Amino acid sequence: MILLLAMFGCKSEELPGSWPTDHREGMVEIIETTFKMGHKKETPGPYGDEWFENELPRHKVTLSTYAIDKDEVTVGQWVEFLNAPGNGTHHYGLHPVEWNGSAFAALANHQPIRYVSWYDATVFCAWVGKRLPTEAEWELAARGDDGRRYPWGEDNASCAKANYFTNYTLCVSEPTDVGSYSPDGDSPYGMRDMAGNVAEWVQDRYGNYEKDEVTDPNGASDGGYRVVRGGGFRDVDNSIRTTSRFGAAPDRRSEGVGFRCAGDP
Q: Could you tell me if 196 and 162 are in contact, meaning their C-beta atoms sit under 8 angstroms apart?
């Protein structure tokens, strides 16, 4: 049961970091919850089996109270990070960012940052006094506790709800400003863009799910890949479902992968 939907910004002064206080607003606090994570093998999609083996088995997970960013980290926020002392080494040539001779400047201030590695994302979140969400935290925030297929429910994906690849056509040819599909594409907790736009790094190593009930899982104990969730603007509808997951090398940078941060109360 979803017990609380609350902005976490009121506690922003308690979070250490280099950002001004107002930049820590916009987090959603999710109270301790038990839910079923993963896909039900016996529940195919409208055109047959839509799940992949790495989404199985469906298993019970209990999560302690946590907070997570309502939106993906934007280019504008990333530029503030780059311009802070010592962070310029995280700049990558394909970022939608330019150097004006004295500082980095955003070319698309409100779009989600992409071409960031897992390492980049981890450092950024630590810089603002946060961390990457675990895979389980990400999934609960995306689907709630009712097992829905997409953040908005069971209705099929459409360009009114998400930025993805549909019917051999891109909804939009690049990532859109964060929140562009709100409220139609929002999750039960009010999370935005958790399906499409850019996929998102999470904290966990990539591996098979546990078969038994777990509390506050943080992924496989070993393995070189990290988990990516949510699908991006070039991914098909099957890849933007709330249970879809894949692994990628942590140093990989992609046009379709960004991130959001999480925190502890």
A: yes
- Domain carrying residue 19: 6-263
What are the Cα distances from residue 199, in Å, to 67, 140, 253? 19, 16, 12
Q: What is the pTM of this model?
A: 0.88
Q: How do 262-263 and 214-215 pair as beta strands?
A: unpaired
The owner of tokens 């950024």 is 124
SS3 category, 101: coil
What CATH number has the domain bearing residue 52?
3.90.1580.10
Per residue in 63-88, pLDDT tens? 999 999 999 999 999 999 999 999 99
- Whether the upstream peptide bond of residue 57 has omega within 30° of 0, thus cis, is yes
Residue 1 lies in a domain: no
Predicted confidence at residue 28, as pLDDT, reads 95
Long-range contacts for 92-101 (Cβ within 8 Å, ≥24 apart)?
92/116, 92/120, 92/253, 94/253, 94/255
231 Cβ contact partners less than 8 Å away, ≥ 6 residues apart: 164, 195, 196, 199, 239, 240, 241, 244
Helix, strand, coil fractions of the chain, as percent rounded to 5: 20, 25, 60
What is the layout of strands, in order, in the sheet containing 226-229?
Answer: 245-248, 226-229, 199-205, 257-258
Query: Could you tell me which of 255, 237, 111, 246 has the C-alpha nearest to residue 165?
Result: 237
Both ends of the chain: CA-CA distance in Å? 20
Amino acid occupying residue 242: T
Lowest mean pLDDT, pick from 3-7, 81-85, 207-211 = 3-7
Q: Which of 205, 255, 179, 241 is nearest to 45 (CA)?
A: 241
**Which amino acid appears at position 69 of this protein?**
D
Domain presence at residue 59: yes
Within a domain: residue 132? yes
Give how many domains the chain has, as a whole number.
1
